[in-house]
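Need tokens for this chain, all 681 residues.
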Amino acid sequence: MLRSLRFQLFAGLVVILTTAALTITVSTRDQMRDALIGAETRAARNVLSQIEMQVSNRYRELLSEKLRIVSERRSALEHIGAVTVAAAEAHETLVTDGIAGQEEARALTLDFLDGVAPGGSVQTFAMTRSGQVLAHSDDRQRGRDFSTQTDIKGRSLPAAVEEDIALDGHAYILFDDSDADDTEGDARDGRRFAHFRDVPALDLYIGVSDRIDDVERYVETGVEATIDMLSETLADVSVVDTGFVFILNDALEIVTPPADWAAPMLNRQDPASGIPIPELLAAAAQDGDATATRYTLPGPEASIDMEAYVSYFRPLGWYIVSTVPTAEINRPANALIRQQSVIFAIVLGIALLLAWLFALTLTGPLQRLTQYARRLPEQDFLHPSGAHGALDRLVRTHSEVGALAQTLRFMEDELRDKIGVLLDATREKERIESELNIARDIQQGLLPKIFPPFPDNPRIDLHASLTPAQHVGGDLFDFYFLDDHRLLFTVGDVADKGVPSALFMAITKTLVKSASGQETDPALMMRRVNEALSTDNPRAMFVTLFVGILDIRTGWIEYANAGQNPPILVPASGDVSLVRPISGPPAGVLEGVAYDCLNLRLMPGDTLMVYTDGVTEAMNAANEEYGTDRLLALSQSLRGHGASGFVDGVLDDVRQHSGSALQSDDLTLLCLRWHNFSPKK
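Here are the structure tokens for all 681 residues:
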């Protein structure tokens, strides 16, 4: 069931639909969550921005009013100062005109200033450049030393006046006069704003001052009114559901109270960081109101996770905090996500039901095709098929399944045709193999098969083997006595394979047999064979051939080598060697070739092995040849073996070298070992 196409198709649709549903759900969930949470956080920030704007506007109103009052008082001081300076300058003119001396004019100016009564908290006075008060509208201030007084910049009063007059021609100085000796509670207490002018001819600074404490009190009163107004306003402000807005000052004291339910918890520490909550909120103001600060209100029953947006209003040193429970920010998003998940689950269930029905519809024809295919082995392909009713109905659908049905119908028809052709080819192949087997038997019948061939002759130990690469081969070997004392032996290799080489091999063997009856010299025998093979040779076939004649009495061998591999001489003692001289080219190549007769002598116990190139050129799976060097080394190790053991040892080593590689050429070996024994009587 789990491996059926229907289930796999349904499972694939389930995976696709589920993946699509989950992807859409997750992606839209995050987007919706971000959007809804963003909306809630923007609402919290908007409330904060509105409160901050309200505070800023109120502060600008107070600041504008303060500047207006200060400006009016400054104008008043400048006016009074102009009158006093005008009087001083008039007295200075008396000195210039010679009417009075400097001290007299100075005294007139000081008397004038002592008599000036500007009214209210305004004071006029004259002081020396060292700060000694010589004249003052308030008698109690006369004789006072202003050098001990400092302005708001920390400069001594005389130095500040001198420095500012040098820069601007006049000076406006703000200083604190609360340290003055106020035994009677006069108008000397508080901060004062003074305007100074220089009268160089009299060596005096003329000053006019007024208190500004009332201006400061006006601003403070305005701030207090603003706090009262904000306390009433913020009490009615709700951020999201239960969120609230409150204000802290630089001392982290509450300026406007938070919601009643949260007030007892705000002075505690945040459980996660261990930092008091007011300090945590004040530190958050450094990031501005764009970043939410998360903290926890430790309640009596359960802690409440909160998010806060904090803005610092520097002119008043206020931290304006808009804070809301985190759960209330996430609540709309979570509700919408739950609703979306339910809708997706319902839609997915309906889609899966339709997918199952679709899988059933799609796999039904495939099941019919499967049943049809399973019945094919039961049919008799040797006879024409009947009607394809089931397939024909599917073909008429013109769908992919119809194309598959048509393919099955075509396959069945073609299969019937191919099976017929295969049967004909099999019969033909069996016939050819039968003929090749007969040819193999005939060819093997041409070769000597009885070993040892001369058991009654102790001087000769001879063994030979031929292993064709195909059914029939082109190698040959033969041996027989020419008379009582001379043994002829021959080994050949036709330059081809298969049936043609087998026929050429049979002809060559017959020609050698015929030539040995007419000639006693191996070279002349080779010449007769070459002439016969090279005449009327349309396929230009040739054979490498070795013909040797052993005199069993003396061990002398006369031989002719027509291009055959050099035989290997294995002496009874000493190193093996190759018998390299050859008599001429392979037989069948050229007419009229004269071959040389060569000879060598075997000592008692010596062995001569004649072989074809199928031995040395045998390949293994790595395309490596067996090679002459390996054959020589092996021959050295087989020195003490008889002819049969020698041949078997070489064949075993060649097979071990070739391994799984296919035999590419015929393997032929003839081993002849000579002993100097007299034959038995």
